[in-house]
Design brief:
- This protein is of the alpha/beta class.
- Helices cover 53% and strands 12% of the residues.
- The chain is built from 29 helices and 16 strands.
- It has a 6-stranded parallel beta sheet, sandwiched between helices. The chain has a 6-stranded parallel beta sheet with strand order 13-12-14-15-11-16, sandwiched between helices.
- Helix 7 (174-187) packs parallel to helix 9 (212-224).
- The longest helix has 24 residues, at 101-124.
- The chain is globular.
- The model is unreliable at 163-167, 415-428 and 547-551 (pLDDT under 50).
Length: 628
């Protein structure tokens, strides 16, 4: 198989990118196919042929990416050219709707009125007014009514990309930005006209995971403007890992959007042949799409390790497996922890392994925070990870300069001071002395032998007034203190996320932060899409899902141990996702990160069945299976 098999794909995309006769396209790009290269090539083609026209007419190429890392990579590879507007979905949508203040106000008013009416109906029909549910709905109604009153006083709306909650009355949250954009695309002709004139080309990476309703609104927009507006969707339904994505998007394009081009990349430039063969087998029952290796990648190793289900010996097993892989592959780097990427299909498995399970379970169990804990974007946690933890590290290292820099930039006492000159003029020696004593109390806590928690940290911060504590944390702290004082636990207090959070060991946040920032050898499918590693270990353990926060994935269904349930069959008939379908996709995404060698680790109650099923499906041969 020659390496140039996909060259025609690039040419077909270029033919679509004609400013006079644009043709929308869906580019199928499987794992390792070089979709980012194709996207950058398309952007460079536009720049080389239309840059002067775009600049003179105030036009841009819109590019929507799924992650900040992908956005930054594409910006870098296109040399930050001004005709490209490259952003994540929320950032792009906000840029599109920013400035339409009256339309935003009208939408929010109508939305809030509907929400208040619904809450009124639920509150009025409640039989028991002394429940947490009743109080929650009453509180939500009060907040909605307050915001409705405030809307007329807002001159200009803003958007805060770092939080899912409003920082001010004029600030929109993530979901509102998406909802507003969808509404404008569907109901505002002037907005639609302005948008297609500004963005004659709109390219969407990871389109299979882009919000379904937004994709549908854009597809409708393209229908009405196809003579002068092009959408380029890039993706692979087998790599769809989020529920909000449009189901079977390629099939929809093929059957409904028959005027679209549908180029397909067939090469996998990332992996060795043996890994590609396994990937083809994994997706065979989904769509039977096959990829082909490069001429220089005709080797590689995959190995399945089957272990009896257990709760607490996975670390020991991982060491054994790495040693075994070093023997199999003749690659001694398998014995170096920092040279092996260990992937979990679920965050909860990593939370157990990396010891932040209490922290994870508390937030994942709450719908308001479920997605935010996966993304690492809970602002109150950032208060600790970006302020308190760096201060802790500076104090432990006796780095007085760093300590003073952190305190000067963030201290409530020193807030507003811009330079060391102003500092000496405004702040008295007595104030600095008191501040030093306050910081020393934190240092004593951090250096203590006991496993301190967030309550311990907040107690000092509350007493010493060193930093401004975020409102949710401050409220939770005082409620907790009242509980201690009165010995009375109100129902709504006992179940509050932030009340539970206070007693979690602080070390769990440090562990979680390292994990979410990819500073450990562990990761999940969420964080590694598009990435690649020479040596990969995929760890699958249904045991880790037990308890709060487990996702709807089942490795034992994938490996034939557990049959599909009636619910699975019902979901399949209704066109909904089943556990098996989801698990197969996650397994595909993690397995295809490997370039050279891949170790697959499955914990099961039925090792014999797993081995038998894998051999009968021909996913592995006998020499590629080890029982531990």
């Amino acid at each position: 198989m020659i390496n140039s098999i996909d060259d025609e794909v690039e040419k077909e995309i270029e033919r679509c990118l004609d400013l006079d006769t644009p043709k929308s396209f869906f580019l199928f790009a499987g794992a390792g196919s070089g979709k980012t290269r194709s996207l950058v090539n398309a952007l460079n083609y536009i720049k080389n042929n239309y840059k002067e026209i775009f600049l003179s007419q105030g036009k841009y190429v819109g590019v929507i990416t799924y992650t900040n890392a992908a956005r930054d990579e594409i910006i870098h590879r296109t040399n930050e050219d001004p005709i490209f507007h490259i952003a994540t979905i929320h950032g792009f949508c906000w840029t599109a709707i920013q400035g339409f203040n009256e339309d935003i106000r009208a939408f929010l008013k109508e939305d809030l009125k509907i929400r208040i009416e619904e809450l009124n109906a639920e509150i009025n029909s409640a039989r028991n007014t002394n429940t947490k549910t009743y109080r929650d709905k009453t509180h939500r109604r009060e907040k909605a009514e307050k915001r409705l009153v405030e809307l007329d006083s807002i001159y200009e709306f803003t958007y805060n990309p770092n939080s899912n909650t409003q920082y001010g009355k004029d600030s929109l949250n993530h979901s509102e930005v998406i909802s507003l954009t969808i509404h404008f695309f569907k109901n505002k002709p002037i907005f639609q006209s302005i948008f297609v004139q500004k963005y004659p080309f709109l390219l969407i990476d990871e389109s299979q995971d882009t919000h379904q309703e937004l994709i549908e609104a854009l597809l409708e927009l393209e229908d009405n403007n196809k003579s002068h507006f092009l959408i380029g969707l890039i993706g692979d339904d087998m790599q769809r890992i989020y529920l909000q994505g449009k189901h079977d998007l390629p099939l929809y394009i093929k059957n409904i959007k028959k005027h679209w081009a549908t180029p397909q990349k067939k090469m996998n430039h990332r992996s060795q042949k043996r890994i590609i063969d396994l990937a083809n087998n994994i997706r065979h029952e989904s769509d039977n799409i096959k990829q082909y290796p490069r001429d220089d990648k005709l080797d590689g190793h995959v190995h399945l390790f089957i272990l009896k289900n257990t709760a607490d010996n996975s670390l020991e097993n991982e060491v054994k497996i790495c040693s075994k892989m070093a023997e199999i592959t003749q690659d001694t780097l398998w014995n170096q922890e920092d040279k092996v990427k260990k992937l979990y299909l679920e965050h909860r498995m990593a939370a157990i392994q990396q010891d932040f399970i209490e922290l994870y379970d508390i937030f994942y169990a709450d719908n308001k925070y479920k997605s935010l804990i996966l993304e690492g974007s809970i602002s109150e946690l950032s208060f600790f990870s970006k302020l308190i933890t760096p201060l802790m590290e500076a104090l432990s290292q006796n780095d007085n300069f760093k300590v003073m820099e952190i305190v000067r930039n963030s201290s409530t006492i020193l807030k507003g001071i811009e330079s060391s000159l102003t500092l000496t003029e405004v702040v008295t020696i007595e104030t600095l002395s008191d501040l030093k004593k306050s910081v020393q109390k934190l240092a004593d806590l951090f250096c203590s032998d006991r496993d301190f928690n967030f309550l311990d940290v907040l107690t000092i911060l509350e007493e010493e007034k060193i930093f401004t504590i975020p409102s949710k944390l401050d409220e939770a702290f005082h409620v907790y203190q009242n509980i201690i004082k009165t010995q009375k636990v109100e129902e709504q207090d006992a179940n509050t996320v932030w009340i539970q959070f206070l007693t979690v060991p602080y070390q769990q946040l440090i562990n979680y932060t390292k994990y979410i920032n990819d500073e450990t050898s562990y990761a999940t499918h969420h964080g590694v899409k598009g990435l690649e590693f020479d040596r990969v270990m995929v760890i699958m353990n249904d045991y880790a899902k037990k308890g709060r926060g487990g996702l709807s994935a089942s490795y034992e269904k994938l490996f034939g141990v557990v049959p599909e349930s009636e619910t699975d069959f019902k979901n399949q008939r209704e066109g909904k996702q089943t556990d098996l379908q989801r698990t197969r996709r996650l397994f595909y995404v993690t397995s295809t990160r490997a370039k050279e060698s891949l170790a697959l680790v499955v914990y099961t109650d039925s090792p014999d069945i797993v081995e038998s099923k894998m051999l009968s499906r021909q996913w592995f041969v006998e020499d590629e299976i080890t029982r531990l």
